Structures are given as C-alpha cells and as structure tokens.
Amino acid sequence: DSPPLQRQNGRLQACDPCRIRKVSCDHTLPVCGRCMRQNRRKECNYTTSGSRPRRLARHMSRSSSTAIQATDTDQTVPCTSSSYTPLPSLPRVSNSLTACQQHIRTVTDPGSGYLGSLSHSTVYEEARNRLSTLHSLPVFSPPLSDETKKASYNSSSVLLSSSIRDRWLTVLRSLPRPSSCTIRLLTTPNNSGGWVRVAAHQIIKSLDTIFGDSLGITRTDAQLQKIAEVLTENTLKRLSEDNSDANSWIEGFTNHNLRWESIGLLFIFRKNGLLELTSDGSYEEISLDISRTCLELCIELSRMFSSGSSLLLFLLSRKTIMESGIMGYASLSAWRRHADTVALLTFLGIYTDPQQVTSQPNFCQENRKQLAAFIFLMDQTFVMFTGRPPLLNYRFMFMPLPLDIDDGDFFADEAAVTRSFNGLDTNGWNTHGGIYSVSFIRARTICAFIRAELVEVALSKAANISTTALLDIKSRQILAMKQIPSPLIYNPQESINPKIPAYHILAQLLVQLDHLQNIFILERLLQRQDMLDEGDLLVTSFEMVSLTLTFWSHKDRLIEARNDFEWL
Questions:
Q1: How far are the Cα atoms of 36, 286, 505, 507 from residue 271, in angstroms, in the given order?
Q2: How far is CA 362 from the centre of its chain?
Q3: Of the residues 277, 307, 337, which one is the last residue of a structural domain?
Q4: What is the pLDDT of residue 156?
Q5: Which domain holds residue 503?
Q6: Closest Cα to residue 215, out of 258, 175, 245?
Q7: Residue 274 and residue 394 in one domain
C-alpha cells in the first residue's frame, strides 16, 4: 500500500472529485468514502499539485453506466474510514461509533436528502432541465438498484463487529416472546391514531410467524444473528413513502419486510404499551429502562443501515417525548434527541409544501403532515420550558396542516376516505364532531404558529414591535380559537359528564392551556410597552393555574391519560 499523498503544507491530499467540489475528503486509499458512497470509484484519483489536471474530463460524467458499474477490484476495497485506521490485529475501542465505522462503510445510497432552492445542485438541475427542453430530451436519473446498494455489504462481518453485535443482541434478547405478548395502547390524544396500533400488532404477529422458534425463552446467539441479518437486509431497502392507503405502507415494514424500525416501534411507549404474559397468567409491563435502551439502539441500527424515512422520524420524535418525560425538557439528553429529530425532518424535506394537488387524500402525505406539525409543536413546547431559541423557524415551515381525517379511514376502502374528505369544511376540519389525534395536533399547531411569532419578539435583542402589532397578534389568537371546532373547546360541564370520553377532555384542556399560554406571553409583552395594566395578566395567570388543577381534581376521569399530563 502506498502512503497517503501530502500537500506542501503537510496536510493530506484530497482526491480530485472532492477537491473540485470543495467538500471534505476522508483520504481513504485507494477510494475515498465519499466516492465509494456515490459509486464513483473509477473517478477517485489522488494527484499531486504538480500533475493535477485543471478539470476532470467532462466534469464527472453522470451517466447511468458510470454510476452503476463496479469492478471486482472495487468490491474488495478495504472498508476503512480513515488512512489512520489501526490494523485489525490492534485492539479496538468497543461500544463506540468509531469501532462501528471501521467495519462498515455506507451500505446504502444515502443521497443528499432534500436540497432546497439555494442548494448547489438546483443551479445544475435548472440548467439541465432547460437544455433538455431545447433538445426535446427527457431528463432521467436512473435510481440505484437494491443490488448495487448492497454490493459492499457483508452481513456477517458487519454484524459481528463488537459494538454492533452488542446492540442487536441487547435488542433481540429484550424482545418479549411474540407468542405471549400483546400491545395495550390506551386511547389518548397523543396516540389515538389508528396506524400505530395496527402496525404494532402486525409486527408482533410477523415476529411470531417468521421467527417464533428463535424468540422463545431460550435464545442462542446463532439464532439471533440470523434474525439480525434479515432485519438488516430489509433496512437496507428504501421504505416506500408514496402509498395511498395505510395497509400498503405498513406492509412495507411488517411480515417478511421487518426492519430495525419495526422493532423500535414496539418500544416507543413509556407505559401501557408492550405487555408480556407471565407464568401466573397475568400481563407484565416491559421495564421502562429496557424500552428506553432498546428504542435508542433500534434508532442507531436504523441510522447505520438506512438513509432515513418518515418511520424513523416518528421513532425519533417518540424518543424525544420519552427522554423529556424521564429526564425533563431542560435536560441535555432530551435536547439532543429533539435536535436529532429536527435534523432528520429538515434532511428529508418534510417541512416543505409537497405542492401535490390530488382529488383524494394520500395516507403517506397526510402522515408526513402530521409529523411535521407535531415536531413543530414539540419545538415550541421546548421553547416554553427552557427559554432557548427554537430549532425550527416558523417562517420556513411550509408544510400545510394535515386534514382532519381519522387514521382509521385510511385502513378502510377508498369510499370511506372520500366520504371523510367530502365532509371537511373549508378549513380542513371534520364536521361531525369527531376528535382524533390529528384534530388535537391541528388545534395545538395553530396556537404554536402564533406562539412562534411571540417567541421571536420575546427572545430577539433587536425586536422593535409596536403595541398595535402585539394587539393584532392577540386578536388573531382569539379569532383562531373561535375557528377551532366546538368539540375541542374546553367546557367545564363536560369534565363531569361520564358520557364524554376522557381523552376528549384531555384534548380540550391542553388546547385551552396553549391558548392561555399565548395570551399570557402577550400580556407580558404588552406590559413591556408601558401599556396600562388593567389586571389582564393576573386574570390569565389565575385561569392557567385553575385549569392545571383540573388535571388533579378530575384525575379519576383522566387516569388512563396520566402519562400525558403528569409533567404538569
């Protein structure tokens, strides 16, 4: 092996493609990691400054034949992540991401995620589209096949690396026996959506059918390795994100398509989620520590073997909720998980407007809308608890609100979705008085967007806003509450009505608290403007405290949803 080339200043020489694009190069010989991931092995050359060409021929041809072909020599390139990687005979640091990367090069085509209008690629894309129009030629970029993605993947060597092996062994040994476990998801505004419940039951059934014998009381490492190989192979495949109905989307990560994200879905709930049948005939909850650890490990494994998906984004958002409930919103662990969630949201471009006008709602599209709204709402919740700047700027949240359609309708036939769609009002609310998880998210997100404007004023040093502007925001907040359907508006009489479901009352309480929080912030900002205090701030504070006490005075009615409000 030849030593790595060095520049005159002593630094390692970047390969020609990385140097031209002015991106970081890991200097791996004979092919760097970036060129390996983009299947440009033949073009990855290291040249000295004296013999370096001014330009590569045709500036890195993008033809499909160059992108897909790989020689036998290319497939046997050592998968090192750095020219300073220690020899295999030297001891490695176990349980570290560095140790993982020494055995793994990127096993899928991660792409560049979502690239917006200011990205470097947009200029070339626009020029190519114009040229193709002039020449009447279609623009075509052939997708990489699954076989090409897996060309450098060897399941045995990757999964047997010490740090990765510890991960999947911990997860698979912690799984309850699928033949004797069940999912008990209590109906609350946070998880009353139908797809999570259906998917969780289907995952357990799939595990029992396919791996039942290997997931019994006694489990050998060899049995678990075979399961890990199947899960990893499936995680390498891109998860479909354009399904019109929920059943076909769930089919993509259940049955013989089980992935690491599927396993993580079983550990997303703090309590009242995964239950295992004990010897005395009763069901026992999975330990919170086990759920917390296994969810984290499943997310790590999913990120190693995939480029991200809305399902992984959902897991990250639930992990954030779990960490905030256990460690608190102000904790570093909760803040880091939230940052990871926002990073994947923006990477996938789920904050943008899809601009797809269809005659019928699409399940995957509506699911992405719900995710974007929920994560934005969660971001504003972090701001209110910590006083830190938001990670998501409301000015760049272009994803429209999800339609007020129950997830369960997407599991029915097309006619059910059409009926629900036709029954919406002009603002996207259902007109038959239903309260679904999406109804709850819609109402709170409307308040969150107004709160984001207030946060911008409150946290900005250079904020220069007039009293008139603040009063205008206050008027919009009051008007927004008037436009929210009456079933979501808090009514003290309904809290003592046994016919009203508990999760309806909880949804009403939380929506009303969001409204009062916005009014509270507004009143404080108005006082900074030396506006005459007529006692509005005191009245709002009293209403907030009184409403919060309702959670405890009616906790017998809300006992099933205790996990959702105990942070209060």
A1: 43, 8, 21, 19
A2: 19
A3: 307
A4: 57
A5: 348-567
A6: 175
A7: no
